[in-house]
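Q: Two folds, back to back.
A: First:
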Amino acid sequence: MSLDKSVTKTSTAKVSEIRTSLIGYYLQPCNQRWLSSGVDCEVLLVNGGKWRKGKIRLRFEFVPNELAQPQSESPLDEFRQLEEMITNFVP
């Protein structure tokens, strides 16, 4: 990606730096509520045709290409599972 198309104008950036750039570049300080508490709005419901009040809030998240392997909640979970297998073993 060329630096002129980068949000932070750098080749690499931390999520906090991207967020700061988005707030400063795309949203003026008076509009920061788009990222925090949200902006009041109404949407028209498809079913029923009524208006529903709420807020629009902009969020973004980092999603890695490879999902991390789930970790045991406790280092002892593997031993507990092994103990359960041994206890329930029927020859």
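A: Second:
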Amino acid sequence: MFSFKALPVYLLLLIIQEIVLSEAASSIPASQSKPRLPRLVRRAHVNAIQKTRSLARDLRVAFGHVLPRSEEGPDNQVVYCKSGQQVLVRKKGSGGKTNEGNSPTTGDGNTGNNSTIFSNFPSSSTRSGGSTRSSTSARVSETPAPSSPPQPPSSPWRLTDSYEGRTFFQGWDFFTAGDPTHGIVDYIDEAAGRAAGILEINSQNHAIMRVETTPTVPTNRRSIRITTQAVFTGGLVIMDSVHMPVGCGTWPAFWTNGPNWPQGGEIDILEAVHEYSNNQATLHTSAGCTISSTNSGTLAISGSVIAGTNCDVAATSNQGCGIRANSPLSYGRGFNENGGGVYAMKWDTTGIAVYFFPRGAIPTDIEAEAPLPDTWGAAQARWPADSCDPFRFFREHHAIFDTTLCGDWAGAVWNVAGIPGQEESCAQRTGVASCEAYVRANGAAFREAYWEVKNVKIYRLRD
């Protein structure tokens, strides 16, 4: 293969050689004849070859500015052939797999124009067997794959029951019997509650449960108490609320309860009375369950043990063993003014624990429905298994919301002061001698006595 520019010169030299030889033959004896022109022709021949190589190099350089470049490697080569020889030349640009005739192809199977084999041999002798790697493949193998973002640890808890949105009240039973704690309320069913305007799903898809605010009532005020149809022994119960009942005379609670009280146990997650500002989480059990220590550090809690360590209702006049939170955002007006928060109760082989997260400090794993309690830090309250077996004293629980008025606790402490949030008694605040008289005569005082709940979710440990 020769350069087009070199080819006419070579032919011209051949013609000149023929003319000179014929003239010399006629004038010089054959024995003295030593034609020099063939040597000149051979030099021209060599020069033509060099120009051909330069032309190929120039073409490669020119195409190199147009065609995509790739990494140089052992397979990024072109077979350049001249006069029966094969010369391997590094190529710039991308190629592809070779087909059976060893013609380069692109990744989609089409013949590529950017990797050419120059040869005067049959294509079958250029390369034997197999196919070459494309430079694209080389780039993929040499470039590290982008690292995926780290995945959060998977939760050991699986969601089994969820109550939220327009269907929040599906899966709950409405309690309509007399109040077991002797409050002056009449619990009504769903239809009656909606008709009375004390039960609804608001425009934000939150569940609303109110107390009746009729100015005066002769006996009891209407209220709501609901119980999950779902039953669990062990689990993780998470409740997100933006508002809870507050005010003198109120006794709201979010709690769980088992059968044949107190044999099945009771776990009060969120509970207090009147104008209290700090939550009080409490266990109520049969004999044998205690808190192993009164030291908050030993229990790994942020709250404080109050009124003793015995959880047996028979021995404590139904008081059980309570732990008071240290945060004024955990209950009542502080809770409401902060937009509420999330309460979580964990019940597993380690014991029972209650956690609280005020609005703005809710763990992302809770919001992602992949709770990781071991990462939540100190609990608000904890009852370790070493002194209260959680599967001996507690079983088959339902979750419950209620708001009662007065009753065994709120009525009994109407004249008590000195509790966080209750620096003066409700008797002093209201000027009314008894809880019952105040409740019956002051319906407007209960406008803040309502639950506004975003959701309740119950989890069980994965198998």
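Q: And?
A: The domain at 157-461 is CATH 2.60.120.200 (Jelly Rolls).
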